[in-house]
Specification:
By secondary structure, this protein is mainly α. The protein has one domain. Helices cover 74% and strands 0% of the residues. The chain contains 3 helices and no strands. About 4% of the residues have low confidence.
């Protein structure tokens, strides 16, 4: 079996697109949760809290999918890395969902974790897009 660079490159591009799709979905939910969190901090009440937590749950699901997709993207990149200089380590981003809901105590802590997770998702998007541009 011979090495087919174009096929391997396309598989990496497809995996990267899938990772971006999951990351964008997580980013969207985190931004929405952040906005609802601000309303909640200003005295939004029970309905606001329920909406915020629903958005956070959606974000958590998308971040878990993104972790899986980033691992697959990293694996596919390994197949073409000998031909393109790539600097991507999925492990850098695989922890962003792990701590997201650990020990949530107060609305301020929730808001801080939403902001931190959002920053990590934004950075993952930037790095994946950069690599996709080079593929």
């Amino acid at each position: 079996m011979t090495y087919d660079y174009n096929r391997e490159r396309q598989e990496a591009i497809d995996a990267g697109n899938k990772a971006l799709q999951s990351l964008y979905a997580a980013q969207n939910d985190l931004n929405s949760a952040k906005n609802w969190g601000i309303v909640d901090l200003l005295g939004g009440g029970m309905i606001t809290s329920l909406i915020k937590h629903s958005k956070m749950n959606n974000a958590q699901s998308h971040m878990e999918q993104a972790k899986y997709d980033l691992q697959k993207f990293s694996k596919e990149l390994a197949d073409v890395a000998a031909y393109i200089s790539l600097d991507f380590n999925a492990a850098d981003f695989l922890s962003f969902a792990d701590y997201f809901f650990d020990g949530l105590v107060a609305d301020w802590l929730v808001q801080s974790r939403i902001n931190n997770a959002g920053a990590q998702v934004d950075e993952a998007i930037r790095r994946v897009r950069d690599i996709m541009g080079r593929l």
